[in-house]
Amino acid sequence: MSQNKKFLLIMPAWIGDVIMSQSLIIKLKLDYPNSIIDVVIRPDIEKLVNLMPQINSTYILDINHGKLGLFERISVAKKLKGNKYTTSFILQNSFKSSLIPWLANIPERIGYLTEFRYFLINKGFKYTKFERTMVERYLYLINEKYHINIKPQLKINNSIRNKTLTKYNIDHTKKNIMLCPDAEYGSSKKWPLDYWIDLANSYDTSMYNIIFLGKDDSINNDIRNNCTSNSIISLIGSTSLIEVIYLLSIADLVISNDSGLMHIAGALNCKIIALYGSSSPFYTPPLISNNSGEVIYKNLDCSPCFKRVCPLKHLNCLKKISTEEVFKVSLNYIL
Fold it and tell me: Coil, helix or strand for 327?
């Protein structure tokens, strides 16, 4: 690769994967400090990507999941063609995700050889599922391994953070414990809601703000009806993604399922307790520094199954993580 590089990355669709892909972006910028790095991204993730200082420009691809969207892809490719990129990295595995770099005539198109896209990718890698961690799956495209110097890192604007804290009336005199009970992938990654409520009620709310964050506002009534203190609040469904990021940035501790918010918290240098059930802490671990948190995972015979819904209908991989265990572990990080 020459020094005069212009990179285009077709970014992943999931928030957590976008965060993990930043390690690849950071490494590219370290190796080619004068390079241009642009990305193609879903509209709902654009503001997240804008917090990655290595990225120069974002291009929006607004297509519903599962749709080919050929017209939209051709339109974006026409815009990009004049940018004369030297190299593209396709960080999704679908056939359609590799169309834009090919249509834009980018000479070097790098990705995994999945879904019969051999003619669309001209520097291809064999793909074996779960062979590497997710972050190293991206780094393997440039023959690199993950290390702490390329840990994902979001750049926070203090003015926006202060406005967000004012908007949600966050009490600055207490420590902030953020609880993230959501997981967009499916119910098999969600620690039971009654466990979350019991955990929230376990803390001394004269010392801590307990703040629920996420998207699934169907659980709000249960939280509000069963939590015993006014210092336990739910902002689930009330915030934008960028607001959640800024709220997480002031957390003294984040307790989360394996989810996009967990990975965002890692990129904000939060202390994290991560709860794993159907997914693997070896495949998608929180990318955190030493002594910044830990994973609780029971490693049952049936997990990880990587299913959206527990195929055995018991969810023991998460139910066997007790409220008492999580509470005791959390005290190591907040006392």
Answer: helix
**Do 249 and 284 fall within a single domain?**
yes
In a shared domain, residues 238 and 270: yes
In this predicted structure, what is the pLDDT of residue 1?
46
How far apart are the C-alpha atoms of 150 and 20, rounded to whole Å?
Answer: 10
Long-range pairs for 312-320: beta carbons < 8 A, 24 or more residues apart: 315/187, 315/188, 315/192, 315/277, 317/188, 317/276, 317/277, 317/278, 318/188, 318/190, 318/191, 318/192, 318/275, 318/277, 318/278, 319/192, 319/195
**Does residue 108 sit in the same domain as residue 219?**
no
Number of domains the chain is built from: 2
**Are both 133 and 173 inside the same structural domain?**
no
**Average pLDDT along the chain:** 96
* 262/260 Cα distance (integer angstroms): 5
Distance of CA 7 to the CA centre of its chain: 22
pLDDT of residue 3: 64
Q: How many residues does the chain have?
A: 335
Flag whether pLDDT at 317 surpasses 60.
yes
pLDDT digits (tens, 9 = 90+) for 52-80: 999 999 999 999 888 999 999 999 999 99
Per-residue pLDDT at 176 exceeds 60: yes
Q: Examine residue 153 and state whether it is found in any structural domain, yes or no.
A: no
152 domain residue, yes or no: no
- The whole domain housing 51 covers 6-145
pLDDT digits (tens, 9 = 90+) for 157-167: 999 999 999 99
**CATH classification of the domain holding 203:** 3.40.50.2000
Cα separation, 300 vs 232, in Å, equals 32
Averaged over 96-115, what is the pLDDT?
A: 97
- pTM assigned to the model: 0.95
Residue 239 makes CB contacts below 8 A (sequence gap 6+) with 168, 213, 247
Residues 166, 127 share a domain = no
Distance CA 150, CA 27 (A): 6
Which residue in 134, 91, 159 sits closest to 262, CA to CA? Answer: 134
The span from the CA of 244 to the CA of 239, in Å, is: 6
